[in-house]
């Protein structure tokens, strides 16, 4: 974590004192290094720790950075088999600190930035990725009507809707023409599978570094970063995991490309998919390449937006955002390869 002086602590302290039961200052804050989209902070008082997530400052793309949706979905999931932090308070008064924000529980666990989990034993790696698979299947089996999320996403073909949305987002933040990205967009639009009737809650950015696990175990304490969540098609989340694994290993790629997975106790792509299908009672998944290509496309759009915000001076971590921008052409190429 890094210090950040941009957060108006006196304003937050006054607001929490008036609106959050049990809150008592004085207040200190530290910004998490992770979280390129919605800046995230640890808040500390003498008695308790909290987490604050806010919209970034500046002019934002329409419908992006919806912290109110993050708050709503995690509140709805409380008590289900999908672990989430407890939600404490949502502030939609942007005059308090300059943007909307919410306060949630500070989970006391551990996160893994890379799926290799090099510091862990073979048995621990196996157990953690099995837990990751289990939680994903549970997420897609949540009864959205029962938890009050039936209106959390519009009706219709999820992939058509998402391709349209992210194409608009990409065009709005486009800084230079990338031919492979143009081709990928066109090809995806022409390759959308017929709607198979699956309509579930989807996380939108499901990967190991958005999960928190017990410090002394392998059970998942919470799924984090719900900014891209909606009602949609579950295969988008599953393919997002596989997409991440196809990236290069290391701090930036955080993938498994070229890794001897068997030696580390990590499942193959197919084994992970089959495990998920077994948990959900599915016979298998046809045309998985489309779902994989879709995720490469969407991630390219996300990274382009981060890069544009860096140019505009609104990125959470400007130096890192500049690096991410260079990945956009690579993700476009991977998307086209997945379709083949």
Automatic annotation (TrEMBL):
Highest taxon listed in the record's lineage: Bacteria
Coiled-coil stretches noted in the UniProt entry, renumbered to this chain: none
Residue stretches making up the Aminoglycoside phosphotransferase domain: 29-252
InterPro entries in the record: ACAD10-like, ACAD10_11_N, Aminoglycoside_PTrfase, Kinase-like_dom_sf
Entry keywords, A to Z: Kinase, Transferase
Protein's UniProt keywords contain Nucleotide-binding: no
Recorded GO MF terms: kinase activity
Gene3D superfamilies reported for this sequence: 3.90.1200.10, Phosphorylase Kinase, domain 1 (3.30.200.20)
Protein name: Homoserine kinase
């Amino acid at each position: 974590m890094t210090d950040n002086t941009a957060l108006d602590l006196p304003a937050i302290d006054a607001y929490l004192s008036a609106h959050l039961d049990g809150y008592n200052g004085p207040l200190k804050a530290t910004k998490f290094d992770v979280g390129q989209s919605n800046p995230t902070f640890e808040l500390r008082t003498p008695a308790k720790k909290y987490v604050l997530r806010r919209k970034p400052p500046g002019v934002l793309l329409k419908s992006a950075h919806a912290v109110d949706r993050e708050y709503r979905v995690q509140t709805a999931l409380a008590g289900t088999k999908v672990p989430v932090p407890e939600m404490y308070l949502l502030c939609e008064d942007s005059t308090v600190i300059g943007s909307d924000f919410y306060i949630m529980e500070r989970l006391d666990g551990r996160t893994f930035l890379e799926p290799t989990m090099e510091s862990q034993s073979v048995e621990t790696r196996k157990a953690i990725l099995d837990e990751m698979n289990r939680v994903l299947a549970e997420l897609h089996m949540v009864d959205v009507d029962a938890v009050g999320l039936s209106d959390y996403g519009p009706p219709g073909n999820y992939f058509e809707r998402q391709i349209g949305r992210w194409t608009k987002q990409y065009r709005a933040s486009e800084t230079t023409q990338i031919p492979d990205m143009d081709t990928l967009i066109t090809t995806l639009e022409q390759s959308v599978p017929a709607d198979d009737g699956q309509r579930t809650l989807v996380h939108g950015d499901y990967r190991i570094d958005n999960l928190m696990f017990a410090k002394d175990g392998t059970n998942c304490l919470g799924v984090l970063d719900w900014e891209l969540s909606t009602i949609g098609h579950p295969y988008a989340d599953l393919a997002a995991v596989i997409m991440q694994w196809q990236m290069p290993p290391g701090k930036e790629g955080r993938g498994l490309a070229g890794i001897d997975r068997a030696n580390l106790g990590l499942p193959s792509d197919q084994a992970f998919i089959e495990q998920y299908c077994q948990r959900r009672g599915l016979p298998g998944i046809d045309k998985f390449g489309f779902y994989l290509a879709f995720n490469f496309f969407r991630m390219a759009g996300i990274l382009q937006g981060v890069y544009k915000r860096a140019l505009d001076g609104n990125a959470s971590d400007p130096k890192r955002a500049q690096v991410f921008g260079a990945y956009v052409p690579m993700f476009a190429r991977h998307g086209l390869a997945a379709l083949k």
